Amino acid sequence: MRRTWMSWVWVFLLLCSWIVPLGVGASPQGRKITVPNKVPLKVMPFEATEVRLLEGPFREAMERTQRYILSLDVDRLLHNFRVNAGLPSSAQPYGGWEAPDVELRG
Questions:
Q1: What are phi and psi of 35, to 5 degrees?
Q2: Terminal alpha carbon distance of the chain
Q3: 49 vs 26, higher pLDDT
Q4: Higher confidence at residue 18 or residue 94?
Q5: Nearest to 90 by CA among 79, 104, 101, 77
Q6: Which helix (H) or strand (E) holds 7?
Q7: Distances in Å between the alpha carbon of 97 and those of 1, 34, 73, 102, 105?
Q8: Pick from 6, 29, 3, 25: which is nearest to 16 by CA?
Q9: Which of 30, 97, 98, 106 has the most crowded Cβ, counting Cβ within 10 A?
């Protein structure tokens, strides 16, 4: 029977799945192998609170979005959540994505 290259790939993967659990490539006596840094680090991790947007288009977009979100009426925005939770809501729901008959939810 003639094998295609894809069947050889499956044979290889099958063999690898047997070899890895046997410990091939593991360090002797289960010790961790440490490798010295050959290249010094140039980047360090930082907290998100350390990031500040300077004046420019990204900050303007952030502020515009913030103004829009803060302009929304909370009761209207929460209308669908309250109705879905079985709570009363007398607020007029928003339209578009927030309309009660739209099933697009995040």
A1: -115, 130
A2: 52
A3: 49
A4: 94
A5: 79
A6: helix 5-19
A7: 58, 53, 15, 6, 8
A8: 25
A9: 98
- The SS3 call for residue 14 is helix
Can you give the pLDDT at residue 3?
Answer: 60
Q: Which residues contact 78 (CB under 8 A, 6 or more apart)?
A: 89, 91
Residue type, 57: P
Q: 21-27 long-range CB contacts below 8 Å, 24 or more apart?
A: none
- Determine contact, residues 73/92, Cβ cutoff 8 Å: no
Q: Is the pLDDT of residue 76 over 60?
A: yes
The pair of three-digit structure tokens given for residue 27, joined into one six-digit string: 């360090």
